[in-house]
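Case 402 in the screening queue. Each case pairs one protein sequence with one candidate compound; here the compound is D-gluconic acid. For every case the pipeline is the same: read the inputs, emit a complex structure as tokens, and attach any notable structural observations.

Predict complex for case 402.
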Amino acid sequence: MKITAARLIICSPDRNFVTLKIETDEGIYGLGDGTLNGRELAVAAYLEEHVIPCLIGRDPFQIEDIWQYLYRGAYWRRGPVTMTAIAAVDVALWDIKAKALNTPLYNLLGGRSRQGVLVYTHANGNDIAEAVESVQQHMAEGYLAVRAQCGIPGVKSSYGVPKAGKPYEPAERGLPSESVWSTPPYLQHVPKLFAAVRNACGDDVHLLHDVHHRLTPMEAARLGKDLEPYRLFWMEDPCPAELQESFSLIRQHTTTPIATGEVFNSIWDTHDLIRNQWIDYLRMTIVHAGGITHAKKAADFASIYNVKTGFHGATDLSPVTMAAALHFGTAIHNFGIQEHMPHSKLTDEVFRSGYRFDAGYMMVGEEPGLGVEIDEKLAARHPYKPAYLPIARRLDGSLTDW
Ligand code: GCO
Ligand code: MG
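Case 402 output:
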């Protein structure tokens, strides 16, 4: 089999997505997601100008060799743009191979290890009462694990708070909007949120919280300790993780489990975190970290150190990535949980997928490959529109992590 063409489908069915379609001389094609929120066209140009020309004529079954060709062969390694571009190619090749062998993708990753993939969804509120109600709504829908975020008094429009009753969606059309941030009221308020949620929702639901990189290690250690009575499933991204040793300090002070890595793009971003057992869950994702080929190596490495997966799954990861993550989570042994922020109806019309939600779990379909189709005509009716993630400033005006 030979790759005959590869092209990009850049569309915006309610939000922007970059999709790579790789075609072969046997009529089988594969899809890969190359969406990097707020930097979409950088990945598109990387693929268009520097990757696609190198793919034509290659054997799509040589996934490892093509991965190494794009990673080592470029000389310039790592980085979110490069690793997202490689991921788009890699996932499309796995899709092609599984279709050619007429089997669902999970069978190429070791076969089925579980019936369904435990997922968590997002509960958000402007205040504690709204957030509690939102957790209850998601429990009524069947979710067994829910992430809770709420507005903080004195902190306008912080991360994770919905705007005008709409489902939470981080990217916004136009240039980046500015939000404000203040740590002291946040540290006071979040334990109150979880006290209220536990009290109203009982002991059984798994509760999660995303700190979104906004604390120092010592502040995160304090929050982890204060949240211990509410037995969280995890505290996510407690502080920025460029300095991996930061997590050693948090770890010494709290038994609240820790998840990190949604902004990582390489196993090397997480190497010390894993081998020192400073984290419990790895959030690095297929789309931003070199595809299934690299994520499998990272997950296998993590398994040796009792670290489980908890992959990123916000709406900026397209249904192509969600399908890949569900096949991956169905197959690997050290799967922990998968984030599930449902896509809009329009996104699901453009990307028709075979996966479904059932009583707290996501089930992959049995179609060969990833089980995702793209409606290119409908996609063309929703062209790309620039959109960015917000930025955040402290009360004194200095820039901080959003
Ligand atoms: C999450 C994430 C998202 C990100 C977004 C950035 O845990 O779901 O933190 O909300 O902010 O995906 O593109
Ligand atoms: Mg997050």
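Case 402 observations:
- The chain is about 35% helix and 20% strand.
- The first strand starts at residue 3 and ends at 11.
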